[in-house]
Design brief:
Blueprint: H1 2-23, H2 25-49, H3 52-79, H4 85-105, H5 107-116, H6 123-143, H7 148-153
Helix pairs in contact: 1-2, 1-3, 2-3, 2-6, 3-4, 5-6
Length: 154
């Protein structure tokens, strides 16, 4: 499972960089989080169906959000004044670290939530991930203005 997610992050990195270079960081981040959300939903369906054959490609899609998380570091640095870039980058890395610690602790409550919905416990973390990734996409789309790469280039 982890290999699928890492592979997805690696496969999405180059196309995301091309999108960012051509259209800006916002579209690349929105695409990464959106593809990750879709992958999380497909992964939840795979758990419900008991299909590892569907789960593995879903996790490749899921990995696109990991690539977006890494790319968000550049967005944070792009928007900062030159003297504050290191601090801004550190803030983004700190937030990602906080999420990496908090996330696994939400697996059990997410599993209980899934059971309340009549789904297998294993679908819960993927459903929670889908919500979080979709929220990230909406927040980036609505609030990441001006586009960080446009600012950095100007």
């Amino acid at each position: 499972a982890q290999t699928g997610a890492v592979l997805g992050a690696a496969l999405f990195a180059l196309p995301a960089a091309r999108v960012a270079n051509r259209y800006g960081r916002r579209p690349a981040l929105v695409a990464g989080y959106g593809i990750g959300a879709a992958g999380a939903l497909v992964a939840a369906c795979a758990v419900v169906l008991g299909s590892w054959q569907l789960l593995l490609p879903a996790l490749v899609l899921f990995g696109a959000a990991g690539s977006a998380n890494l790319a968000a570091r550049y967005a944070g640095a792009d928007l900062a004044p030159p003297r504050q870039r290191a601090r801004s980058l550190a803030l983004v890395v700190w937030a990602a670290t906080f999420g990496a610690v908090l996330g696994p602790n939400l697996a059990e409550p997410a599993g209980r939530w899934a059971v309340l919905l009549g789904l297998p416990v294993g679908a819960g973390p993927y459903l929670l991930s889908a919500v979080v990734f979709a929220t990230a996409a909406v927040v980036v789309l609505g609030f990441l203005r001006p586009d960080p790469l446009v600012v950095a280039r100007s």
